[in-house]
Each structure stands twice: as C-alpha cells, then as structure tokens.
Amino acid sequence: MVMGKAKLSKPLIFQSKLLCISLLYLITTLFVALYTSIYPTKCLFRSSPFDPIQTPFFSYPSSYGEHKYVIPTHRSSCSSPIYFSGTTSYLLLLLDYWMVLKEILQLCQNSSVSSHALRYMKGNSKNFGGNFSTQKRISYFDLLNDSVEVPCGFFKRFPVSDSDRMAMESCHGVVVVSAIFNDHDKIRQPKSLGSKTLDNVCFFMFVDDITLKGLDHHEVISRNSHEYSVGVWRIIEVSSKDLYDNPAMNGVIPKYLVHRLFPNSKFSIWVDAKLQLMVDPLILIHALVVSEKVDMAISKHPFFTHTMEEALATARWKKWKDVDGLRNQMETYCENGLQPWTPKKPYPSDVPDSALILRKHGLNNNLFSCLVFNELEAFNPRDQLPFAYVRDRMKPKLKLNMFEVEVFEQVALEYRHNLKKDGTAGAGGIPSSKRVSNDLYINSSCCSKCHDYLLEMWGESHN
C-alpha cells in the first residue's frame, strides 16, 4: 500500500520473457500437432524462410505476360510432408533458414570439387559431344579408377562471352540454372527467397539469339548492353548456330553439364523455364539432398513407372517425331541390359519428371550427368529415356532421392510453353494435344529385342 492506494503488479507468469516464449511455443506446437493429427496428409513444406524478400525482383512490361498459362494441379494434399529439423512451430521455423544457410555454407567451404572430380576427355570435333558409338559409351559406365578420362561434351567451344564465362567460374556455392531456346518460355522470378539467399546463390539463365530478340521486343532487356540481367537472373547469351540444330538439345547442355559450366559450384538446381520456383533454393537443397545424404534429388513422373511407358507415349504423342530412331534407342537399351521396373529395384520408379533436378556435385553425380548427356546426343533430347538405363548400369552407384509428385507441386508452379499464332508450342512446332497414329511397338512385335521387357512390363508370360 502506498498513499492509501493498492499498487497492481503484473502476474508472475508475465514477468518472465523466457516463460512467455516457452508457453507460446508450447501452444503453437500443440495446435500444429492437433491439426496434423486431424489432417495427416496435409503438406507442410516450409516455403517462407525468416525475413523473406518482399519487394519484386523485376517489373515486367505488361506485353510480356510472364504469368500466362499456369497449369493447375489437382492434388490438394501431400503424402510425403517435408519437415526441417523435425520442427513444427513457427518460432523454430524462424531459425530453420539460418541453420540451413550456415550448414550449406560450411559444406561449401569444407568441400573441394577437385578432390573428387572426374577427368574429362579433351579433343576437337565438329560435334559438341563427340558422337561416340554404343559400345564406346558403355565402356565408361563402370569407372574402375579415377585416372580414366570420361567423354563429357565440350569437344568444341561452348559459345559464350569471356565475361560470362568468368562469372560462371566465380560461382563457388549453390547455382540455380535454367535455359530458354527458340523463345520457348518466359523468364519468371523465384519466390520466397530468404534475405541472404541472393548473397550466396547464383542464378543463371541461358538463352539463344531468338529468345534475346523476344526479350528486346518486349523491352525486358536492352540489346545495347553487353551484359544482361532480368531480376535475379543473369542472362547468358549462347550462339546456338555453333551448337546443335535442335534447340531442345542445346538446352540439354546446361541441364546435364552444369558441373562443367560451373566447375567451382558445390550444389546446383536445374529449373525448367516452364517452372517458377516457390521455395528458397537453399531450403530445397538442404531438405532434398543434404538431409537425405544423396547425390541427386528428382521427382517421380506423375504417370509412368517404366521407361518403355515413356517411350511409347513419346512416339504416340509425337514428342519426338523420329519414331524409327526411338525404336532403335529402346532396342539398344534392351539389348544392353535395360529391365522394367520392379519392387526389387532400390528406386521407386524408372521414370523421373526432370523439370527440377537438385544435385550435389561430386564423382557419382558428375559421372551420371556425363553418361546421360552422351546418350542424349546419340539419340534425342528426351532425357527420361536413358535415365534408368544409365542409373542402373553405372558404377559407382548414384545415391538418388526420387521424391513424390506432390512435393514437386508444392515447390514449383508449372506454366505452359509459349504459344505461337498457329497454336503450336514455341520450339519444335508440336501440337499440344493432337494424338498421332505412329506407335513404337504395334501388337508387341514378336522379334524385337524389347519383347521380354514388354511382356514383363505387361505381366505376361515369357513363354
């Protein structure tokens, strides 16, 4: 009592900040635990790191239409939720980003790319990849010792400027890579980047002259500049006249030879230009690669499990018009050991959705990427077709995380490719929904080298 008045003091519970925080944490945790017990399949992928960047990275002209033609998804739940450090509270989520950032920076500083690098074959050729025979390509699948020189592209110069090449070589940590050839897609900015991500992650977009003309036409860039950037992306101009005639094959170079274009990077994320990344790349690398202790992370295909299913669809829907070439490719793979998927394989599928690929650069991943690139150059740029063939035959084995389709849909938005006036896709002129009569195998061709594969895939007797 003071001067006859009672002095009201705060209850003891509110006098300790630590106690208040602990109670808030407990309430939040109980709420989330109750929610997840009621809705156990709800995907809780962390997409908002601490202090996310809110300001737009780039203001696009209205004519560019970077957000047209988004493809809706029909999966409202996620059967494989991804947690970080096992936490479920927002308070600890605030720490997750910083923990991830610190751990990845330590991994980048403590690892040496040169200590586990492949030796790459050198030479001069009219062809970028060397154009090796089937048996020659197979001879590199089993890497007996690290003194063997592996063919991995670059038998002719990759046509980029010296300043761009220096910028690529100066990326020493995590690199995010994409490409647009033949003006096939729009440049889209990633979302939910943490406040320190741009200081520690490089973003590179490879484009050809046709794409640059489109960007210039819409005033997204100015051709008067010698270096281009659009938001977070550094734009790398590639002279496609010095590479492949097929724009899709030119896109395969940064997709599968990222470890050669960025020789000092430790981790990479390939993002098809049809995707918009919705989760911070550091968080993705940590959750899908580092925490899983793998060389590569890639989504399962939403529909197919067997390689032959993808090959049949490629021919039926004319995703690659040379059906005879497709048949020759599959015959070659069946003859040299390709088997249908079974539960006995240590992987959940033989067919990936390769629009998003996360890699830890090292011997296993680099060898796999080189071997896949050699197959793509030998046949066609449909990279789902050689995926299991290379993965299952190569030694040392690739440590692979094939994550669920629902996870893929949580971390990226997918858009349709640019549409031309005739209603076709931007590169290749392939109708988006027209079915063709050509088929890879009609009536299960009795004498094909893939006969046993087809019978096993369809669950029929070999006799």
TrEMBL record:
Domain TOD1/MUCI70 glycosyltransferase-like positions: 123-417
Membrane spanning residue stretches: 12-35
Keywords, alphabetical: Membrane, Transmembrane, Transmembrane helix
Protein name in the entry: TOD1/MUCI70 glycosyltransferase-like domain-containing protein
InterPro entries cross-referenced by the UniProt entry: TOD1_MUCI70 (IPR006852), TOD1_MUCI70_glycTrfase_dom (IPR048354)
